[in-house]
Amino acid sequence: MKCICVFAGSNPGAKPEFSQAAEELGKELLARKLDLVYGGSKMGLMGRVANAVLSGGGCAIGVMPTGLFRGEIVHTNLTELHEVTSMHERKAKMNELADGFIALPGGYGTFEEIFEVVSWGQIGIHGKPIGLLNVEGFYDPVMEMVQHATEAGFIPKTATPLLLCESDPAVLLDRLRDYTPPEKVNKWSELSEK
What we know:
By secondary structure, the protein is α/β, with parallel strands linked by helices. It has helices at about 15-30, 45-55, 70-75, 85-95, 110-120, 140-150, 170-175, and strands at about 5, 35-40, 60-65, 80-85, 100-105, 130-135, 165. GO terms for molecular function: hydrolase activity, hydrolyzing N-glycosyl compounds.
């Protein structure tokens, strides 16, 4: 692994532990000489993880649609900034650059981004590792929902390992490093194996 894509809130959230975790993740990326690719904002958890990487001389690559420059306030000290035309192009570019994905706490955008890369992994578009940094139990309800959907027959049991979840950035990065994608199986229960 050379580059990790981090999805994160463009707000800092209500708990100081969220910002602390973003900074710890940035420092851990730096210590492992891993580049960061992310949404390109200087705001919220996005900005905190980037600042932690940049403060140690690491590489932080931003990808931002032109229309979001005012709202997310583009980070002007990045190693690279890729200006794109849409959110679809943003996600495709981040996927192209990344060897793995981590979601810090965030809102609708973060949820959408992480679930899209999980969906891509499930149907075989990529075999990259995907993790949730479970700060203060933030992602407990998501993991419960995944388990519920598995038990209800909507997520194949073979696909539940696609989403790794840890509360410690170092442990999560170790798991991403050691990740082996699950064997590709038929995800459609009504389709024969032939």
